[in-house]
């Protein structure tokens, strides 16, 4: 997170109030939300929902989605 300059609060916001959720064939769920503090770039948070508590696998700004204006 430090290397990618991702704040913990942004991950929490994305998980609590995503703009989009995507269930993938590998069983993960991808939560996506634009982050205003990063010029509207989209943060993608990958979660393994089969663990208790659910486990965040990774988080990154998804360049393929561009920016929300």
Keyphrases for this structure?
69 residues; mainly beta; four-stranded antiparallel beta sheet; 1 helix; 13% helix; globular
Distance between the termini: 24 Å
Q: Helices and strands, in N-to-C order?
A: HEEEE
Structural class: mainly beta
Secondary structure tally: strands = 4
Shape: globular
Our count of domains comes out at 1
**Could you give the order of strands across the largest sheet?**
1-2-3-4
The helix tally amounts to 1
Query: Which band does the percent of strand residues land in?
Result: 35-45%
What is the averaged pLDDT score?
A: 94
Main beta sheet, described? 4 strands, antiparallel
Strand-helix topology:
Layout: H1 8-16, E1 20-23, E2 29-35, E3 41-48, E4 55-61
Antiparallel strand pairs: 1-2, 2-3, 3-4
Concise structural overview:
With 69 residues, this protein is mostly beta strands. It has one helix at 8-16, and strands spanning 20-23, 29-35, 41-48, 55-61.
Structural commentary:
The structure is a single chain. The chain is mostly beta strands and 69 residues long. It has one domain (8-64). 13% of the residues lie in helices and 38% in strands. It contains 1 helix and 4 strands; from the N terminus they run αββββ. It has one helix spanning 8-16; strands at 20-23, 29-35, 41-48, 55-61. It has a 4-stranded antiparallel beta sheet with strand order 1-2-3-4, covered by helices on one side. It is globular and about 35 Å long.
